[in-house]
Amino acid sequence: MKRKKVLHIIPNTTFGGTSKLILDIYKKVDKSLIHFDFVSFNKGELHSEFTRYGSNVEYIPYIKETGIIKHIKLIMSIIKKNGPYDAIHVHNGYKASPALFAAKISGINNRITHIHQNKVSSRWIKGLFPILKYFLNLLSTKKVACSKSAGELVYSNSFQVINNSIDLEKYDWSSLTSKADFKKEFDIPNNTLVLGHVGRFSNVKNHEFLINISEYLKSEKVPHKLLLIGKGPLEKSIRELVKKKGLENNVNFLGNRFDVPDLVKNLDVFLLPSYFEGFSIATLEAQVLGVKSIISNNVPKEVDLNANIIKYKKLSDGAESWGREVLGMIKESPLDEWEIKHSLKVKGLDLETTVKEFENLYFRTP
Fold first, then answer.
1. Model pTM greater than 0.85?
2. Which residues form the signal peptide (predicted)?
3. What span, in angstroms and rounded, lies between the C-alpha atoms of 202 and 224?
4. CA dist., res. 273 & res. 286, Å (int)
């Protein structure tokens, strides 16, 4: 069987959900059959991981910096330089059309659009959205989304849902850091409630809401720690908010971490008050680790393993209501590792299933 060469367009090579998912998939695909190259817009901590298997990783400016014509020319030049390619797989959502057009002009017949979000946030994008949507549908030969709601946002006809997923090998409870060692590392007293969040510091993740939950718990004299894992453009303003509210002893900023499973496993409750999500790998990870979660009702229901471990809440309920929900959840009974992981496999949310679906995209004719 002829080896397929695929060019992925990814937002960045940082710890972001989409890029990390693509990297995890690439580690598992049969490299005798498939080779990945990458075009990205932001070089990050995972760059060396993306190049480990001989992949070319090219960085170009964001389209708003170059304009559409130059953006298309840049991608065409990369295709000419590193190709030929059997397929292009574009992960930058409703902004995929220029890359798809560059691929079509360059003779790539297998053009895959992959949507990872279920809402348009930018005001100027909303005005252009009907045009962007039209050309995306016109130029795509295969249409993929991480959830039903994400696909319905963009596609005008049928599409394939490929669930975001995780590698179960990384989530063996017995091999992760013990709660005693975890609390010792972060100097957390035994009677302290530990909350956590994994996500980039950006508007969509709604970190201010998390700080308001912490403020409520402090007002109720609940000893607690809120661990914020991630980095991003709004980190400075959130740090200032924490200082303003006098929560420096309650909120810890941990930055990007390679030991996320060890950290999340030792949370009492995981929180995700996002304004929108295409899916949420972080919530999936929390469930697989047996951590109870409270997430906003803006997160697609596909992420729920139906293991009675998640509670959906409206943001309009307010931070106090979320705080009271937290206090109620910690009194609930513990969960069974086998049952949770079985639920994940039944729903097709394990990485092995996703890898097979990705491989089929490159070998299946449209």
1. no
2. none
3. 24
4. 14
